[in-house]
Amino acid sequence: MTLFLSPDSQLAVQKAAEELREWGSSRQGLGVALIYGPVSAEDRLYHSKCPVEQRSVTALGEALDEIGARWTVLDPTEPGFIADLAAYDVALSNLHGPYGEDGRLQGLLDYLRVPYCGSGVAASAVAADKILCKRVMLTLGVPTPGWRVWSGGPANWNGRPVMVKPPFGGSSVGMSLVREAADLPRALANAAGEEGADVLIEDYMSGTPLTVGLLELPGGPVVVFPPLATEATEAEFYDADTKLDVESKGAVTVQAAELTPDALSRVTRDAHILWDGLGLRGSARIDFILTEDGEPYVLEVNSTPGMSRDSNFVVGAAMVGLTHTDVVLAMLHEALARPPYDVPLPAPVFSGPTATREAAA
Fold first, then answer.
1. Main-chain dihedrals φ then ψ at residue 211, nearest 5 degrees
2. 158-162, 191-195, 236-240, 277-281, range with the lowest pLDDT
3. What DSSP letter does each residue of 66-135 carry, written as one string?
4. pLDDT score of 44
5. pLDDT at residue number 352
6. Are strands 31-35 and 90-93 parallel, antiparallel or unpaired?
7. Separation CA 41–CA 47 (nearest Å)
């Protein structure tokens, strides 16, 4: 059973931070593959619109420099990506959405025997699939807004506002708040995309969005960051444009959430249940909505939290005394301390035929 540390566990967190910094000083020259590229729709959006200085990959690179790591950004869309991965001691992924956050990259890294930061195949796959994650929440007894799945054809309108969400991806890309029946078909088509994927229709609950970060520390304890309240000041909800905030207009405010003891206890309990129930590792961020009558409901689980300097996850870490670099050290430590994935499979060999096959594809 996981040992969870509350934000008040200052001595334990401070001791862990000191241990991490000492560990980091002994790992000078650690080879880190920083995986980033325009693979999913979410990452393509960030790659094309988000200024370089605001990107998570920029902040991660700065932290790796501070640690003294030997690192390179590896782009999955570039030839030679798989062969290049095998040359590094550990992989730190900054990919989000399909192919990067949904277990497929994790499975590749397992096969290559390359340690990697964050959750494994199963937890990543469940967390990334909003519909599957909803089903697991129900099984675990975690409260979540009512929902249904649309698989094409006419959609019933129950007369109440709904959030229409693509099953994969984050940063609210492809998401719509629908208040009128006439707007529902367009929202569904937008969320389904060219692939015609199933779409999640979720009951809209007005209230305050909350986010809770969790970080695994040396020895296995997990510190739960204080819940943060986010408020979009220039949009109906915390949408993709607000999260990008390309023009730095301050379109969203982030601050410590003011919760009643009961609401805080329930948010913390649900974060614990989801961490253990999904089998999360390394780091995660869980998003809630706190209704106007003080009831918290889980919206989704992020197994690869954003890591820009101003991200919710990093802000939460700072509130328990951890710097951005401390967080990166914790992620690297967890990856390298984890028992290696080892099954009787041949070690991958990269040769001419493999390159030819990739080129042909």
1. -140, 140
2. 236-240
3. HHT-EEEEE-TTSTTHHHHHTTSSEEEE---STTTTSSHHHHHHHHHT--BSS--HHHHHHHH-HHHHHH
4. 72
5. 52
6. parallel
7. 10
